[in-house]
DNA sequence: CAACCATGAGGAT
DNA sequence: TCCTCCTGGTTGT
């Protein structure tokens, strides 16, 4: 369920507390026993996120590739350092219902073993596919759709299949034109193209719905019928939303909220979005009931009046 | 308890 | 278009 912003935050957390350390790698659940044994005791030398994929490189070049899919999450225990200035760090990232959040105050570096287990390291809870551990910090991965060890060439091949990700690209303008080309050359609905990770990486079902609403664009519009300037606006908006999501740690997509409204939306997910998850509720702009339909097996929310 | 659901994606048909 | 995998929270009987 995590979209791109979550994976970038996870990459930051791993860089902050794990890169530069020798890592004890285990698979409490057992389903990653061989991979864990291969990586165990090596130094983590770098972590990158591209789209929804995470690449953790160990000394010697092996890359741990993780994709959280719908259910995956990382839980962090022990020292969980702040990853964004002026903000709390959250001890768990991924599928929201999995959050056994350990919230830590600004600037706080604290040794603790989780909310209900004041020992370190804590016993693994549930089906932990991989545990990465330093002497001070633990990262538990559960429920990933992909978790494998790749050599650098294979890892790069995965990256090469992905479209641009604003948070892993240094040339946003060049990336923008790649997206323009990949959208406007297709007859597939733009609502599907935004979810296609080879077109643009990191967008999921929530950001898809919200980007289209913010652009007031009908999700059914064929890619080739979307004017290039509208694709550019979508891309620039994705740049903004992703950056905000990485900093805030939540998908607050309503640009009409003031600081207080954003604070309330952070506490109440029902206030975060224009249309996502609001089937039958009045559009926040025109009052028309929000429509939900299936598009390529995923729920698509949109306003039939504002988006055309 | 079971059934259903979720911010995902690959592969078979 | 369907099936499968992965985990766990919520809802219903």
UniProtKB/TrEMBL annotation:
Molecular function (Gene Ontology), one example: zinc ion binding
GO BP, sorted A to Z: base-excision repair
Sorted UniProt keywords: DNA damage, DNA repair, DNA-binding, Glycosidase, Hydrolase, Lyase, Metal-binding, Multifunctional enzyme, Zinc, Zinc-finger
Name of the top EC class for this enzyme: lyase
Domain Formamidopyrimidine-DNA glycosylase catalytic: from-to ranges: 2-105
InterPro entries (alphabetical): FPG_cat (IPR012319), FPG_N (IPR035937), H2TH_FPG (IPR015886), Ribosomal_uS13-like_H2TH (IPR010979), Znf_DNA_glyclase/AP_lyase (IPR000214)
A Pfam family that the UniProt record links to this protein: H2TH
SMART domains (alphabetical): Fapy_DNA_glyco, H2TH
Ranges where the FPG-type domain occurs: 274-308
EC number: 4.2.99.18
PROSITE patterns per record: FPG_CAT, ZF_FPG_2
SUPFAM superfamilies xrefs: Glucocorticoid receptor-like (DNA-binding domain), N-terminal domain of MutM-like DNA repair proteins, S13-like H2TH domain
Family membership noted in the UniProt record: Belongs to the FPG family.
Official protein name in the record: DNA-(apurinic or apyrimidinic site) lyase
Organism for this UniProt entry: Cellulomonas fimi (strain ATCC 484 / DSM 20113 / JCM 1341 / CCUG 24087 / LMG 16345 / NBRC 15513 / NCIMB 8980 / NCTC 7547 / NRS-133)
């Amino acid at each position: 369920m995590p979209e791109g912003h979550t994976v970038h935050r996870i990459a930051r957390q791993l860089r902050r507390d794990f890169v530069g350390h020798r890592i004890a790698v285990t698979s409490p659940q057992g389903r990653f026993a061989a991979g864990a044994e291969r990586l165990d005791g090596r130094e983590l030398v770098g972590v990158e996120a591209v789209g929804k994929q995470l690449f953790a490189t160990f000394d010697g070049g092996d890359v741990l590739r993780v994709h959280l899919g719908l259910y995956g999450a990382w839980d962090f225990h022990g020292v969980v350092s702040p990853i964004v200035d002026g903000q709390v760090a959250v001890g768990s990232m991924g599928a929201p219902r999995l959050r056994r959040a350990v919230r830590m105050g600004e600037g706080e570096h604290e040794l603790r073993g989780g909310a209900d287990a004041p020992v370190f390291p804590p016993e693994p809870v549930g089906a932990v596919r991989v545990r990465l551990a330093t002497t001070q910090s633990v990262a538990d991965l559960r429920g990933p759709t992909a978790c494998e060890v790749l050599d650098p060439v294979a890892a790069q091949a995965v990256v090469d299949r992905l479209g641009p990700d604003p948070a892993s690209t240094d040339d946003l303008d060049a990336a923008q034109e790649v997206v323009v080309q990949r959208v406007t050359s297709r007859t597939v609905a733009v609502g599907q193209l935004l979810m296609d990770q080879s077109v643009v990486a990191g967008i999921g079902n929530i950001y898809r719905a919200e980007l289209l609403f913010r652009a007031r664009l009908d999700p059914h519009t064929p890619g080739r019928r979307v004017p290039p300037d509208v694709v550019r606006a979508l891309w620039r908006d994705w740049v903004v939303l992703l950056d905000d999501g990485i900093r805030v740690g939540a998908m607050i997509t309503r640009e009409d909220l003031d600081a207080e409204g954003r604070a309330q939306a952070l506490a109440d997910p029902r206030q975060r979005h224009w249309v996502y998850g609001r089937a039958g509720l009045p559009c926040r702009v025109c009052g028309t009931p929000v429509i939900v339909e299936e598009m390529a097996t995923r729920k698509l929310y949109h306003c039939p009046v504002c988006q055309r």
